[in-house]
Amino acid sequence: MSNVLVNVEGNVAVLTISRPAALNALNSETLDDLNAALDQVEANADIRCVILTGGPDKKDNAFKSFVAGADIGEMSSLSKAEGEAFGKKGNDIFRRIETLPVPVICAINGFALGGGCEIAMSCDIRICSDNALFGQPEVGLGITPGFGGTQRLARIVGVGKAKEMIYTASNIKADEAYRIGLVNAVYAPEELMPAAQKMAAKIAANAPIAVRACKKAINDGLDAAMDDAIVIEEKLFGSCFETEDQRAGMGNFLEKDPEKKLKVVPFQNK
After folding, report:
1. Whole-structure pTM value
2. Cα–Cα dist 6/14, whole Å
3. Residue 231: CA atoms inside 13 Å, Cβ hemisphere, count?
4. pLDDT given for residue 269 in this prediction
5. Spatial distance between the Cα atoms of 51 and 200, rounded to a whole number of angstroms
6. Mean pLDDT over all residues of the chain?
7. Quick one: pLDDT at residue 1?
């Protein structure tokens, strides 16, 4: 995997998209590398949270781009069938990120345009540096967003704002992204990764089976009617009572010992 770096520290995996000569733009090879990185994450039961970020620029080692978009050079000569296949490849991988059992935090450092904005939106939580820039510029290139942009953006920021951004191909800065709810927080560039790591550590310290169940309940419930969504939650809530995490967590609480913290055990594949 030459374009995606995987670093696992404790219960947190950091996936870094690193294609510095092209501002981390997503070509087919990079998408394949990302898919292989996700294989590694899912094969490691100790991982409880993932951070997805972009590597530094090749020229001066500065963090200028999270992902500048899909690779225009590769897309420029695609046929209709090839374009559809390229869109499916990106959509399949981004959907895999969205449904990954463990939470994914996206740490956005610089450009998040086109495919970069789309991959960020497939993550559970987005935080960015104050030099981040977001946008869906595809109509200026004669195409539509192809990796879920027309669907996720409307769900996250609302239909009207999503249509404005997509139809006008306008970019927005970090403060506007925060205002409309596209990102959860904005940090100085040097504070971005420490903030992501701190958040990931807090997630990883909680009962892993319960965290996974929460992600599944939220994701599955969003696409269901409320009556059906409540049943999804009930079943996942009930499933937690078969775990050591629940017994240990509630047992510690009932002991009322402020010196003791919630005990969690290695992930059980139940």
Report:
1. 0.91
2. 6
3. 5
4. 47
5. 7
6. 93
7. 73
What the block records as the tokens of 73 is 């050079």
Q: Locate 259 and state its tokens.
A: 């010196």
Residues recorded for the chain? 270
How many CB atoms sit inside 10 A of residue 95's CB? 13
pLDDT of 245 reads 83
Show which residues are catalytic: 118, 138
Which tokens belong to 3?
């374009």
C-beta separation of 119 from 67 below 8 A: yes
Q: How far apart are CA 201 and CA 180, in angstroms?
A: 27
Categorize the per-residue pLDDT at 244 as very low, low, confident or very high, splitting at 50, 70 and 90.
confident
In the block, tokens 């200026």 appear at 140
Instruction: Quickly list H helices, 158-207.
Output: 159-168, 174-179, 189-204
Measured between alpha carbons, how far is 262 from 270 in angstroms, rounded to an integer? 20
User: Which amino acid, residue 153?
Assistant: L
Pairing of strands 133-135, 65-67: unpaired
